[in-house]
Amino acid sequence: MNRFVSFAFVFLMLLSPSVQAEDLVSFRIVSYNLENLFDWMDDPKTDDDSFTEEGDHQWTEKKFRRKLSNLSKALVAAGGWQTPVVIGLCEVENAFVVNELAHNTELSYADYSFVHRDSPDQRGVDVAMLYDAKRFQLITQSFLRVHLEERPTRDILYAKGVLKETGDTLHLFVNHWPSRYGGELESEAKRIKAAQVLRHTTDSIFSHNKEANIVIMGDFNEYPSNESISRTLGAFKQWEQAEAGNLYNTCFQYDGNESVGSHKFEGRWGMLDQFIISGHLLSNMNGLHTNLSLVNICNEPFLLKKDRTGFAPKRAFLGTLFANGFSDHLPIYMDLIINKK
User: Fold this and answer.
1) Neighbour count for residue 324 (Cβ, 10 Å)
2) Each residue of 1-37: pLDDT tens digit?
3) DSSP state for residue 279 in the 8-state scheme
4) How far is CA 180 from the centre of its chain?
5) 3-state helix, strand, coil in the chain (%, to 5)
6) pLDDT tens-digit profile of 172-208?
7) pLDDT score for 119
8) 316 phi and psi angles, rounded to 5 deg
């Protein structure tokens, strides 16, 4: 799943006489849908009754702690067994579960800071972001409200900060767009609305600086070629012609290939989880940049299980039964690199 290409790229870079290992700085960003990371306590403000000891999932602190440990191992693997600079998270219930994941699991050595705010989602499902404050200085954070006429949805997290080692500014967005519940076409308008909200903000950033470094990540509940992403958000796939001031979907490389993806539905893989970036990060070869070989799916064997068509994510839940797995999604990751010379 592109891992060989990524390793080959880095290997060739290291062999190049003009670029030595000590000259490269790499910044890894991970995006992961955690599949219902709920605590075991009832929140009277949200519909989380299923994730309590008396609820359908018979959710206990012991199960919660086991799931936390599993997720932390998946994130360490996605980080290449090192500390990612930024981790975008989907399907977290509240600040408590984010804090426990960051500071009371195998991730604690990284001493992550985090960004989170409760959203109006009826189940209490939110997005969040972990970041390594030793390498990334957070400047500002906000949450973009997606106003829907019916069932409220998650906010879009926006964080602006600076990579301390290079001084480059990053604009980061963590998304979890409305689900396909009720049917893909019937629910499409909701995701188009989320795309409009996001597009309004990225257009504002580009109006001030066409060379802005923008990274959009998350679970979009859409594929790269769907209208909300390709047309409403305007994420292009012509990477070779990348221009500053435009958005490009790095995960178009997986689109239409049902044998590879971050999520599996009815025996077919697909890329609901994506990285969409500004053109400057694809064309700025003398500064902070990335390329398609540096965008990958973390498909370590321990994250998978056999199914009738091969392998699928080793998910945390089978119905209401806790299966001691990880998530129904696989983590994806992207490396930004820069030559210090």
Assistant:
1) 12
2) 443 333 333 333 333 334 455 678 999 999 999 999 9
3) T
4) 18
5) 30, 30, 40
6) 999 999 998 777 877 899 999 999 999 999 999 999 9
7) 95
8) -75, -30
Q: Which H, E and C letters describe 178-227, residue by residue? A: CCCCCCHHHHHHHHHHHHHHHHHHHHHHHHHCCCCCEEEEEECCCCCCCH
Place of tokens 């359908």: 56
Both tokens assigned to 54: 């008396």
| CA atoms 283, 285, 288, 291: torsion sign | positive
Tokens standing for 297? 């799916």
Q: Output the CA–CA distances (angstroms, integers) from residue 34 to 85, 214, 241, 293, in the order listed.
A: 18, 23, 34, 25
Structure tokens at 88: 């975008």
pLDDT digit string (tens) for 75-100? 999 999 888 999 999 999 999 999 99
Q: Which residue type is seen at 160?
A: K
- Max CA-CA distance within the chain? 63
Quote the pLDDT of residue 185: 76
Q: Where are the alpha helices (DSSP H) in the chain?
A: 3-15, 61-78, 95-103, 184-208, 227, 280-283
Q: Which residues contact 50 (CB under 8 A, 6 or more apart)?
A: 56, 57, 59, 320
Do 37 and 71 meet the contact criterion of CB atoms below 8 Å apart? yes
Nearest 5°: the CA angle 174, 177, 181 is 150
Helices (H), 56-142: 61-78, 95-103
pLDDT tens figures, 24-75: 899 999 999 999 999 999 999 999 999 999 999 999 999 999 999 999 999 9
Strands (E), 271-331: 273-278, 295-297, 304-307, 310-313, 317-318, 321-322
- Distance separating alpha carbons of residues 62 and 300, to the nearest angstrom: 25
One-letter amino acid at 44 equals P
> Three-state SS for 250?
helix
Cβ–Cβ under 8 Å, residues 279 and 244: yes
Beta strand 247-249 with 235-236: parallel, antiparallel or unpaired?
parallel
Q: Give first-to-last CA distance, the chain, whole Å.
A: 31
**273 near 35, Cβ under 8 Å?**
no
